[in-house]
Design goal:
It is found in: Endomembrane system; Secreted, Extracellular space, Extracellular matrix. Belongs to the chondromodulin-1 family. With 129 residues, the chain is of the alpha+beta class. It has a single domain, classed as Enolase-like, domain 1, CATH 3.30.390.150. The chain contains 2 helices and 9 strands; from the N terminus they run βββββββαβαβ. The strands form 2 sheets. It has a 7-stranded mixed β-sheet with strand order 3-4-5-6-7-9-8, covered by helices on one side. The protein has a two-stranded antiparallel sheet with strand order 1-2. The longest helix has 11 residues.
Length: 129
């Protein structure tokens, strides 16, 4: 995966039992982690060294169970592949709101674990001007 023009390793973990998907990109000071909580329709995002954690709404869905053979097949097909990301001029961007979430009781334990003690900010979609 390319982050800021630099090729970074990434991984994805699916926890179908808890309806979660975790993406890890980069490493060390350049690591970013995103947890997709499909049960509650929330994505949590944390950047290494950051002073804030972010959440955004997403579609509620159910992750299908993936068998061991399918997991191995998907893994080997994606190993070493570069997946280009294209930026379109009028594409949607996500901007943090000014104030952190006051009541985080609606967040799953996995998103709360991701954010730790950091303040949590909603991301809202917008188009560049």
């Amino acid at each position: 995966m390319s982050i800021n023009g630099k090729l970074q390793d990434g991984s994805m973990e699916i926890d179908a039992g808890n309806n979660l998907e975790t993406f890890k990109m980069g490493s060390g000071a350049e690591e970013a982690i995103a947890v997709n909580d499909f049960q509650n329709g929330i994505t949590g995002i944390r950047f290494a060294g950051g002073e804030k954690c972010y959440i955004k709404a997403q579609v509620k869905a159910r992750i299908p169970e993936v068998g061991a053979v399918t997991k191995q097949s998907i893994s080997s097909k994606l190993e070493g592949k570069i997946m280009p990301v294209k930026y379109e001029e009028n594409s949607l961007i996500w901007v943090a709101v000014d104030q952190p979430v006051k009541d985080n009781s609606f967040l799953s334990s996995k998103v709360l674990e991701l954010c730790g003690d950091l303040p949590i900010f909603w991301l809202k979609p917008t188009y560049p001007k």
